[in-house]
Design goal:
Strand content: 35-45%
Distance between the termini: 27 Å
Shape: flat
Number of strands: 38
Helix content: under 10%
Number of domains: 3
Largest sheet: 10 strands, antiparallel
Structural class: mainly beta
Radius of gyration: 26 Å
Low-confidence stretches: 1-20
Strand order of the largest sheet: 1-13-4-7-6-5-8-3-11-10
Mean pLDDT: 92
Length: 574
């Protein structure tokens, strides 16, 4: 197996001064327990608890969360927007597990100590990014090691309606680690009381910090080619103005690997029969037809319903304006409910067509209809005169027709999205964590084609480049069928990305100045490529930099049949 050689370490030292891409102190970092904040419920908030594995000394300047204290909800919470809270951060060696109730103010020999305190201003989750920021002045300093952390949110004592706070969280708790180069967060939870129990469900939390100046690090340079996700969508923030898709229609023409989306020329077909809400729901997070799914419905198509990335013989209809292209039996709010400012449910759930994915109240208004063509060539789903939850005057009508060819027609009637903090989403996603493009203006972009699912190779490391450590430089996101890559090493980056279009690689770029390259074979087509990178246990390598890029040989995506990854700047250190 090829390895990166340290025979050129002296050259690396000579080049470090000229290439400042990742030399010097690491930049400020953010560790989030989810990239996109999400919500299932709101909770009484006394504390957020978790364990933190800290690889290098860090300085924490702030933390960010999503509060729910803007005078809404069911039952409504008091409006405390603009109030301030003192937030205390306690730590204990090892883990928080088993010591969550040992309040240092009342428990002798409690392992918890106060690391420091900050001030947080309550923010409306429906305004801007909705994040309430805890500012630590002075910043908090935490040494390397394993720590239990208890972030205690004290109730505001002045301002409008001062009292206990609430936060948005995710249920059930996914109970997964969240990690970057320097930190790993595990066992996160929400507590109603600061020292009263082990915690439930998962908070939204970001830690903004700076690692020690001599820390080893790797920094991506630019991006690889190509990022062409099948998904497309438009997001509509709450507004008293109707979305531009109201009283419009579009057609999604299935081209196999993607859709051609064109203007429609059809109107509403008044549904017949009985609303599905006259019968039982299949799944519900609210135990009624608000935030509910139909029972899975077998399609009448002999060959199923094809869509980019798959085909399905079943659909499941959501009361909240979307159709899952799968048989779904799940009463979690993330599956049955609305998005409320987050793209995560749309991205991470099953494949779906979002007619107008929104918080609709089918329990008390309108109807939901499913109809089948007598010749079994199409099925039609209609949300008819359904009010937005909590806003009876915001009435919504959408109709989706699925054809056995895989084509889709969508008619939008009246649409409304007035609820503070909510957003509505229209579009298609293959789901299951597939990449999403930026939100678009669908009507203004017609006609357009969605992506074909191409994804760029990503070059990274499986561990920081610490002196004396054996690591791997890993190429991920490999397109199936790729069995070989060219691995390129250099001593510096380039001032700006160099286009490789003249070589038959349009929209691919060179990000480093190479000094050597070699081929790497992969016995598992589509699997990751790994190149060993073993660093001698010699402090003279402190701050030595190397630059890398990968070029997987992937046929069919450009004329040359080669892709490029991002560049990677690697600074050796502690």
């Amino acid at each position: 197996m090829k390895k990166v050689s340290f025979a050129l370490a002296t050259l690396g030292l000579a080049a470090a001064a000229a290439a400042q891409n990742c030399n010097g102190a690491p930049a400020q970092q953010r560790l989030s327990n989810r990239a996109e904040f999400a919500a299932s419920f709101y909770y009484d908030l006394g504390a957020h608890i978790f364990d933190l594995d800290v690889q290098v000394p860090i300085t924490i300047s702030s933390m960010r969360t999503w509060l729910y204290d803007q005078g809404v909800g069911n039952p409504p919470v008091p409006n405390q927007v603009g109030n301030t809270s003192q937030v205390d951060v306690f730590v204990c060696p090892g883990t928080r597990v088993g010591v969550e109730t040992q309040n240092p103010a009342t428990t002798p020999n409690s392992p918890w100590v106060l690391l420091g305190s900050g001030t947080m201003t309550v923010v409306d989750t429906g305004v801007g990014d909705g994040e309430s920021v805890v500012v630590f002045n002075p910043p908090l300093n935490l040494t390397a090691g394993q720590w239990g952390v208890n972030v205690v949110y004290n109730a505001p004592t002045s301002g409008q309606n001062p009292g206990p706070l609430h936060c948005l969280g995710v249920a059930p708790n996914p109970a997964t680690p969240y990690t970057d180069q320097f930190l790993t967060m595990t066992r996160d939870g929400i507590r109603a009381g600061a020292w009263t129990g082990t915690g439930v469900d998962s908070p939204n939390l970001r830690i903004v910090y700076t690692p020690a100046a001599n820390s080893a690090q790797y920094v991506p340079l630019g991006a690889g080619c190509y990022f062409r996700p099948e998904a497309f969508y438009q997001s509509f923030p709450n507004s008293n103005t109707a979305p531009n898709l109201a009283n419009q229609s579009i057609s999604l023409i299935n081209l196999g690997s993607n859709y051609l989306v064109v203007p429609g020329s059809f109107g509403l077909v008044t549904p017949s029969g009985t609303s599905l809400t006259a019968g039982a729901y299949g799944s519900s997070s609210s135990l009624d037809w608000d935030d509910a799914l139909s029972t899975p419905i077998a399609l009448p198509f002999a060959n199923g319903f094809p869509y980019p990335t798959g085909s399905t013989s079943d659909i499941t209809i959501s009361s909240n304006g979307s159709i899952y292209l799968a048989s779904v039996v799940n009463n979690d709010y993330a599956v049955c409910g609305a998005s409320y400012g987050s793209i995560a449910p749309f991205r991470d759930g099953p494949a779906r067509i979002a007619a107008y994915y929104h918080d609709l109240d089918l329990q008390t208004s309108g109807g939901l209809y499913y109809e089948v063509d007598p010749n079994n060539q199409w099925v039609r789903v209609t949300w008819l005169n359904v009010s937005e939850w909590g806003v009876p005057a915001a009435v919504n009508t959408m109709q989706v027709t699925l054809h056995d060819t895989g084509n889709i027609d969508i008619f939008y009637g009246s649409l409304g999205n007035r609820s503070n903090g909510n957003n509505a989403i229209t579009g298609f996603t293959p789901g299951n964590g597939a990449g999403l493009p930026a939100a678009m203006n669908i009507l203004a972009s017609l006609p357009f084609q969605s992506g074909d699912g191409a994804k760029p190779p990503v070059l990274t490391m499986d561990a920081r480049p610490v002196i004396g450590r054996a690591t791997n430089i890993v190429t991920t996101n490999i397109t199936p069928g790729t069995t070989f890559q060219l691995f390129i090493a250099g001593l510096s980056g380039v001032p700006s990305p160099i286009s490789l279009a003249p070589f038959g690689m349009p929209n691919c770029f060179q990000h480093i100045s190479p000094f050597t390259a070699f081929g790497v074979a992969n016995s598992q087509p589509g699997g990751d490529f790994a190149v060993p990178f073993t660093i001698p246990n010699d402090n003279s390598y402190q701050n030595v930099q190397f630059f890398f890029q990968a070029a997987p040989f992937t046929p069919g995506l450009n004329t040359l049949g080669v892709l490029t990854s991002n560049g990677l700047c690697v600074k050796i250190g502690q």
